[in-house]
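FIELD: query
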Amino acid sequence: MLIPEYWAEASGKTTRHNKPITIRRFGWSNTSQAEAQNHAEQRVQEAIQATLAGENLARRELKIPYNGSDGVPIREEVLERHPHCVITRNAYGAQCLNTAEVLFADIDFEIPRKPAAYSWTIFFLVIFSFVVGKNLFSFPTAFAIAMATWFISYRIGNLWWSWQQNRHPSAEEQALARVDQFLVSRPLWHVRIYRTPAGLRLLAMHQTFGADDAEVAESFVAFRTDKIYVQMCSNQHCFRARVSPKPWRIGIQAHLKPRPGVWPIDPNRLPDRQQWVAHYERTAQGYAACRFLMEKGSGYVDPVAEQVRAIHDQMCKALEPLPIA
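FIELD: result
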């Protein structure tokens, strides 16, 4: 995991197949801006050499903070550095905990969708009632019959759908059952489970992991972890958890300024960003990012995982009786 303090960009020109090309690359450093610039120029020369050797490389890297970034470190404002995790502000303004050692897994609940036959049945009932009503009565009467048919069939259909869903375990119960099933074959595992607005968050407490470990991949499959999150863990060699609310869930519709909020930003725009952040942080005080539900497994606690857990729970307000957002 690498989340640099300093960023730079360099460019270089070369010729390939008798055509001039320009290659641009980013550089980064935790030490100084000059070191970041030197790194960028070094990467440009490496890309030029690879291009001349026949590799088909992108001419320019995209300025992406996290999602979609591949091969380039996380490009976000660093808020805090701890021994085993780094807190950053993501592109839409929320705070995120990044760790190369402690496994987090987000499980988004699968929302069941009504089958297409449900809507088509209502549609044909309405058309049929209108045709029959028009043949037997006047047009206004037929229209009224069709509307009544739609209202009644819609209500009955919803009652039927609710009855069907109540016959099966809820999305949360299904997710917890998958966790239980996985833990049966992993007696050493110990996980803390949190409720998020969209599902569950799991935190492994019994040992540390690398994002590319085989057992991590197995757990992601078993838990049905969000696929984008799984890919980003692999790309960035770290795990990640949002530890403050999403702005739109706490009534903030204005976007983080300037847009896009990719770090670093123009110093002239910093006051706009600081004003937005101050408003966001004041509003976020009344919300939690997740809520602790339960623990499952062996009960063993790795000291590194415990350090990260303490920071996570405090920042998320996971033990406070606040609405989650």
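FIELD: remark
The chain has three domains: 6-61, 79-109+170-316, 116-166.
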